[in-house]
UniProtKB/TrEMBL annotation:
Belongs to the phosphohexose mutase family. SUPFAM superfamilies: Phosphoglucomutase, C-terminal domain, Phosphoglucomutase, first 3 domains. This is Putative phosphoribomutase. It is found in: Cytoplasm. GO terms for biological process: glucose metabolic process; purine ribonucleoside salvage. PROSITE patterns: PGM_PMM. GO terms for cellular component: cytoplasm; nucleus. Keywords: Carbohydrate metabolism, Cytoplasm, Glucose metabolism, Isomerase, Magnesium, Metal-binding, Phosphoprotein.
Length: 623
């Protein structure tokens, strides 16, 4: 443990491990100048391994991404996998990397660690999209997979993403077991950047796996004859990432015409020179692609993020404006594509399973009620959605047809149990082509889905707050109330939790509408008949006995997350971010497609109420 050591001891410990001249020099210079504050930030608190693996800025120190922390993570992971996965050494590990600074180095060091521990290593030596790793783990029946990427994070970041033997990202208790194993295996036992070249346990079949990935994607073909009759043009931006080659190959493989590239963003560049943030969701990120589309007479813009696991799209409208589809809108469109694809294969719709995250639109739930497929929502993140699909497949015999999250992540191929921007792109192109042959734009078709399944409008926001105690106080005021709150006790519930002795005083109204449902995953509370119970209890105390009203989702006291539903169709989730100093909130309201104006008005009132009444943004100085 580093917490009990002096800063001088931490410096000495670091220098005894580190063989990278760049990071050694960083610590040496800080130590020579007596910059204790910087040394404390870099060395005192070790980087935490969680369900997302590792992700941080690339710098020296135990709290950052660097060669030392990558080796330590790999040592802990290797030991844990050997212990937990049958025949792990023979089944091997898949290791891939993207184009970010140090990604190749981190991948080679990871391979060296697993080789030392006796694993066969499927080393994808060459730039790879993230989806290729979970595909390969599932295809090869490997014991685990590691992808070196920070997805769409800023250029100074990198990450270490872990996939389990089922081809999905890790979830508890696996993440906790790996984290503990890392703590027990801190001493650097191998530092070898050349082992991947010479060790007999290295298996180099990257090209074969890419071809098998493309072959698997043919499952997504709706109509090959129609694919050969594409009249629309589409512009594509790789956002300076690795997606260009793979998107080109998959379009060709499915007999679709090639994309028109955004030349300045086509080649992998770890400095992302033309975008402020390499994320297609960011404002202005698609500007160059729209310009290229205008110049080439194209009505569709397609984009993937740097590691090509996310997908974005925009469509030019009749008035010349560009409509950028939200993650939820793309989710519904691609869910419908998955539905008609399944029907074309004569699959039983009742056997299809589709899932999305709890902060994503409930329009998918509405679609499920109309069409008859199985719908489930999960906690935020593809790790939860993929594992839910696996459970529905293994326990109930359902087909993992589709999953999505509002942050432009989509799963359409059951062979890839993670989000995949490449297969999402080729599915969207086929849908757009299918609609074009019917004389319809994609945005027009989306409007018909609103008529069929109900109109759903959403707005997602966040406030920046670096003060963790203040964030916790804000959330505690929502659930427990206090004497300074703008929401009086007469407008709150009065529940006593028997297990803790604390009184829950959740607000009874939001945006002028009664609250009908609450789920609090920080303390472990879920009540679907909230309005009825509150009305019945009136001003009397309502005792919640131990085990009553406990949520189906995992409870995490270390993070904040509360969901409310209102009588007028509103759904609101407030949560803290695991990687950024933000309070995020997701608001959605549904209604009649013929009365969008009323829906928009109620949504606006909902959003204002969350900021003013719940978060008290002005009083708390939230930005």
């Amino acid at each position: 443990m580093t917490s009990s050591l002096s800063i001088n001891d931490l410096v000495e410990k670091w220098l005894s491990y580190d063989k990278d001249p760049v990071t050694r020099e960083q610590i040496t210079k800080l130590n020579a100048s007596g910059d204790v504050d910087s040394l404390e930030k870099l060395l005192r608190k070790p980087i935490e391994f969680g369900t997302a693996g590792l992700r941080s800025k690339m710098e020296a120190g135990f709290s950052r991404m660097n060669c030392v922390t990558v080796i330590q993570a790999s040592q802990g992971l290797a030991v844990y996998v050997k212990k937990m996965v049958p025949d792990a050494l023979k089944r091997g590990v898949v290791i891939g990397y993207d184009h970010r600074h140090n990604s190749q180095t981190f991948a080679r060091l990871t391979a060296a660690v697993f080789l030392k521990h006796g694993f066969s290593v499927y080393f994808l030596d060459g730039l790879s999209p993230t989806p290729l790793v979970p595909f390969s783990v599932k295809k090869l029946l490997a014991s685990c997979g590691v992808m070196i990427t920070a997805s769409h994070n800023p250029k100074d970041d990198n990450g270490y993403k872990v996939y389990w033997e089922n081809g999905a990202q890790i979830i508890p208790p696996v993440d906790g077991g790996i984290a503990e194993s890392i703590k027990q295996n801190q001493e650097i036992t191998v530092w070898d950047l050349e082992a991947y070249k010479t060790d007999s346990k290295i298996i180099s079949i990257r090209d074969k796996l890419i071809n098998e990935y493309l072959e698997s994607a043919k499952y997504l073909i709706l109509d090959r004859d129609l694919n050969q009759k594409v009249n629309i043009n589409y512009v594509y931006t790789a956002m300076h990432g690795v997606g260009a080659y793979f998107c080109e190959r998959i379009l060709e493989s499915l007999s679709l015409k090639p994309y028109i590239p955004v030349i300045s963003q086509l080649q992998p560049d770890p400095d992302f020179p033309t975008v402020r943030f390499p994320n297609p969701e960011e404002k202005g990120a698609l500007d160059l692609a729209k310009k290229a589309a205008d110049e080439n007479g194209s009505n569709i813009v397609l984009a993937s993020d740097p590691d090509a696991d996310r997908f974005a799209a925009a469509e030019k409208q009749e008035d010349g404006s560009w409509f950028v589809f939200s993650g939820d809108q793309l989710g519904i469109l691609l869910a419908y594509y998955s539905l008609i694809l399944s029907k074309s294969k004569n699959l039983d719709v009742s056997k299809l399973a589709m899932v999305n995250s709890t902060v994503s639109s409930k329009m998918l739930r509405s679609m499920a009620k109309v069409e008859g497929f199985r719908f489930e929502d999960t906690l935020t993140g593809f790790k939860w959605m993929s594992n839910e699909l696996i459970a529905l497949r293994d326990n109930e015999g359902l087909i993992p047809a589709f999953a999505y999250e509002e942050a432009i992540g989509f799963l359409l191929n059951p062979d890839i149990l993670d989000k995949d921007g490449i297969t999402a792109l080729v599915s969207f192109v086929q849908l757009a082509n299918f609609l074009d042959h019917k004389g319809m734009k994609v945005k027009e078709f989306l409007d018909t889905l609103y008529t069929k399944y109900g109109y759903f409008a959403s707005d997602n926001y966040y406030y920046i707050c670096n003060d963790v105690p203040k964030i916790n106080k804000i959330f505690d005021k929502i659930r427990y109330g206090d004497s300074t709150s703008d929401i009086s006790d007469q407008k709150r519930s009065n529940f006593l939790m028997e297990s803790s002795g604390r009184r829950l005083k959740y607000p009874l109204n939001l945006g002028g509408s009664p609250i009908t449902y609450i789920r609090d995953l920080t303390i472990g509370f879920e009540m679907s008949d909230f309005d009825k119970v509150s009305a019945a209890s009136s001003n009397q105390e309502f005792v919640i006995k131990s085990g009553q009203y406990y949520p189906k989702f995992m409870v995490s006291p270390s993070s904040q997350m509360i969901t409310f539903e209102t009588a007028n169709g509103g759904i609101i989730t407030l949560r803290t971010s695991g990687t950024e100093p933000k309070i995020k909130y997701y608001c959605e309201i549904s209604g009649d497609n013929n009365d969008r104006e009323s829906v928009a008005k109620e949504l606006k009132q909902l959003v204002l109420s969350v900021g003013d009444d719940f978060l008290e943004a002005k009083a708390n100085g939230l930005v």
